[in-house]
Amino acid sequence: FLPHQIASLEQVDQTYIMVKPDSVQRGLVGEIISRFEKKGFKLTGLKLFQCSKELAEEHYKDLKGKSFFPKLIDYITSGPVVCMAWEGVGIVASARKLIGATDPLQAEPGTIRGDLAVQTGRNIVHGSDSPENGKREIALWFNEAELCQWNPAQAPWLRE
Ligand code: IDP
Ligand code: MG
């Protein structure tokens, strides 16, 4: 085996990352994209998008019974979001660590929420919580034609 062939045998997962409307309004889009880009993950889909109430409700369907659900849907549909599909080995758990705890006051410094947000209801970014949900959410927010399969030139410098 050549080193790049060994790496290719590892499980590559996908995660759906979304810059929420508050971070678009606050001018944090570049900052948030940059955290994932600098880490070394591969971007496979990216768009600015105004989502419908129906799509927001489908995305957050597991939270339907919660008291904050109506406010959550208002928040997510209050302005454009930036939808992103990212790919990498171990990406789902790693992206959740980069994002930090749901409550930004509990999120560690160095994380996106820990550095840039103060309240759960304005916690600026979404990340899928499992590889299954990563696939589900990417399929929900993107058409097949909006996703790019490509080989970043830096790949051999990121993984041996
Ligand atoms: P996560 O985004 O860290 O995965 P979840 O528990 O999946 O957190 O909740 C989804 C989103 O719902 C949160 O990111 C936040 O925007 C919102 N949310 C969760 N809990 C509360 C709450 O107690 N009050 C207001 N909004 C909440
Ligand atoms: Mg969640």
From TrEMBL:
**What's a GO biological-process term for it?**
UTP biosynthetic process
* Isomerase found in the keyword field: no
Q: Does the keyword Ion transport apply?
A: no
Q: Which residues form the active site?
A: H126 (pros-phosphohistidine intermediate)
- Which UniProt keywords are given for this protein, alphabetically ordered? ATP-binding, Kinase, Nucleotide-binding, Transferase
Q: What class of enzyme is it?
A: transferase
**GO molecular function per UniProt:** ATP binding; nucleoside diphosphate kinase activity
Signal peptide residues are: none
Q: Where is the Nucleoside diphosphate kinase-like domain?
A: 12-149
Out of the domains of life, which is the source? Eukaryota
User: Which cofactors is this protein said to need?
Assistant: Mg(2+)
* EC number from the UniProt entry: 2.7.4.6
**Which reaction is catalysed here?**
a ribonucleoside 5'-diphosphate + ATP = a ribonucleoside 5'-triphosphate + ADP; a 2'-deoxyribonucleoside 5'-diphosphate + ATP = a 2'-deoxyribonucleoside 5'-triphosphate + ADP
**Binding positions for ATP?**
K20, F68, R96, T102, R113, N123
State the family named in the UniProt similarity comment for this chain. Answer: Belongs to the NDK family.
- Its name, as the record gives it, is Nucleoside diphosphate kinase
Instruction: Write down the species.
Output: Arachis hypogaea (Peanut)
